[in-house]
Every structure is written in structure tokens, then in C-alpha cells.
Amino acid sequence: MHSKSTAGIPWFGYARLKWATYCNGMSDGVFDAEVASGCDRDVEYMYAPEVLRPTVDFLEACAAGYRALEFAVGTGRVARALSERGVNVVGIELSASTVDQLRAKPGADQVPVTVGDMTTTRVEGEFGLVYLVFNTIGNLLTQDQQVECFRNAAAHLAEGGLFVIELEVPQLRKLPVGERFVAFKVDGGYAGIDEYDVVYQQLTSHHYNVEADGSGRLFATPQRYVWPSELDLMARLAGMRLRERWADFQRNPFTAESTSHVSVWEKNESSAWATA
Ligand SMILES: C[S@@+](CC[C@H](N)C(=O)[O-])C[C@H]1O[C@@H](n2cnc3c(N)ncnc32)[C@H](O)[C@@H]1O
User: What are phi and psi of 84, to 5 degrees?
Assistant: First the structure.
């Protein structure tokens, strides 16, 4: 894990601080075992039945009996639940430490995982569904990497197969003119602040936590924010077309007020504008 001086963070002046950057597509030297184990704890709410069940319902329907591939499978939150429904699912994950954690979990033997980068790593066979959830396309920090991710998804899909992405809508309307920071949550021992770079389309979410023992933990997740329309263009470049867009996995309508979207593109070779 990287270490960083805590000077200049008066808000946490009293606390013992740790600094980590994770879930950011960097090498395993950054996303080490300690950070990987923190991931599950920090995202417990994503395991709640009201979150996970509609996700798995949606993806099971998209798989329609065919094989599924999860990009950035993490510790298998979704893949293991999908596999319990009888879907044949495999994963690609960049962090070997995270894959070690997945392999220690119940049901992990049903979810083979390849350690690698979702922009370049190929696994054998054809799939009816490739999916990338929980805002993780944003972990690819350049437009080129995101385009490659779409191309890699298309390369794994059979004709007519589906690529599903779950992603936040950039909240630039909350950013006052001339400002870079937006506090998105301040609650007890937690403060979350988004930092925008509107020139390079970068978003860093800073998470400040006070632990039960009074120590402090600060981590930052750098992302490239991307608009739904830009994703549609990436899909076209990869030979896919938008089939559905919802606000969430419950299929609520996507509107101007939606803060997230679940988008489904269908592979259709004849729609490709360009090939690599
Ligand atoms: C927010 S977690 C999501 C994990 C899982 N998909 C879920 O929904 O619970 C993001 C994961 O993406 C992985 N990741 C980031 N960049 C990646 C890349 N380029 N290729 C493969 N995995 C990547 C991280 O290591 C991390 O496990």
C-alpha cells in the first residue's frame, strides 16, 4: 500500500491515519491484501438482499441460459450469487489478493477466475452475457482503456450476446461554478467528498472514516467519469448497440433525475463503425 503524509488534513489531526487507494485498476502493489479485505467491509450495503437480489434477477434474465463473464469480479459478490441460480459464470479480476479472498468464500469453486486486466485479458469460449457492475468501468482512467474494455467485452460475446454496465451518472449539476469539491455524504464517523477535474473528466472520491477504536482511515478512489451517450459510442465502436437503459436493476425508468443507470448493449457485428 502507498503511504502518504497526513499533514494538511486538520479535520483528522487527532487520529492515527492510514491512506490507501483501492479499486482503481492499479497494480497489486497498491491493492494489497489489507486493502482487498477492507473492500468487502466498506461495501456491506451492496450485499443487502434489496440490492443484490434485483441485480442477480436482472443478470440471470440477460444470461438467458448462456454462459456469463463478470469483468472485475472482485470477491464474487454478484458472480457467486448468480452461480447459485445455476448460471455458468466465470470472472476476470486484476487484483490477485482479491482473488485469494474470493477463493476462500463459499461457492467460489463454481466461479473460475482469471487474474488479469479486463481491457486485455481473454478467457476461453463464447458468452451470452458479459457484465461490469458497481461503477467499475470508471476505474479505467482513460477513454482508450474504456474503449478497449468494450472491445474486450464484444470479443467474448456470441452474436446477439449482451454487455451490461451499472454506473453512476456524473453529478456535475451539483458542482457550483468555479468549485472542484462536492460533499456527497457526511454521517457520523464518515465524510465522503467528490473532487472533479472537468478538463480531464476525472473524479476522485475521498472517503474519511473514523474507526471504532478512534483511529482514522482515509482512502481515495480515482475514476474517469463518463456519460451514457459516450458509452453508447464506445459500444458502437465495438460492434454493439444500445438495447435498454434503466435507472437501476429494478428497471425503474431512466430520467433526467436518475443518478445511476443500468445499460444493456447487444452485439451485432453489422453495427460496427470501426474495428481494431
Ligand atoms: C468496486 S469493486 C467491484 C467488485 C465486484 N464486481 C462487485 O460488484 O462486488 C472493483 C473491482 O474492480 C477490480 N478492477 C479494477 N480495475 C480492473 C481492471 N482493469 N481489470 C480487472 N479488474 C479490475 C478491482 O481490483 C476490484 O476488485
Answer: -60, -25
Quote the CA–CA distance of 212 and 242 in Å, as a whole number.
45
251: in domain: yes
Say if 20 falls within a structural domain.
yes
Q: Are 188 and 175 in contact (CB under 8 A)?
A: no
User: Which contiguous run of DSSP H or E holds residue 261?
Assistant: strand 260-267
Answer yes or no: pTM beyond 0.85: yes
Asked whether residue 102 falls in the same domain as residue 72, the answer is yes
Domain that holds residue 210: 13-28+177-224
Residues with Cβ within 6 A of ligand 1? 23, 25, 31, 72-74, 77-78, 92-95, 98, 117-119, 133-134, 136, 139-140
Instruction: Give me the CATH number covering residue 195.
Output: 2.20.25
Q: Based on the domain organization, do 199 and 230 belong to the same domain?
A: no
**Is residue 94 domain-shared with residue 49, that is, in the same domain?**
yes
- Taking only the tens of pLDDT, the chain with its 276 residues reads 333 333 333 333 333 444 444 444 343 434 555 555 556 666 788 889 999 999 999 999 999 999 999 999 999 999 999 999 999 999 999 999 999 999 999 999 999 999 999 999 999 999 999 999 999 999 999 999 999 999 999 999 999 999 999 999 999 999 999 999 999 999 989 999 999 999 999 999 999 999 888 888 888 989 999 999 999 999 999 999 999 999 999 999 999 999 999 999 999 977 656 554
Nearest CA to ligand 1 atom 9: 77
218 and 230 in a single domain? The answer is: no
In the chain, the number of structural domains is 2
Copy the grid coordinates of residue 41.
Answer: 467491509
Q: Which residues pair with 163 in a beta bridge?
A: 130, 265
The closest of 154, 150, 120 to 137, measured between CA atoms, is 150
Angle between helices 143-156 and 228-237 (to 10 degrees): 50
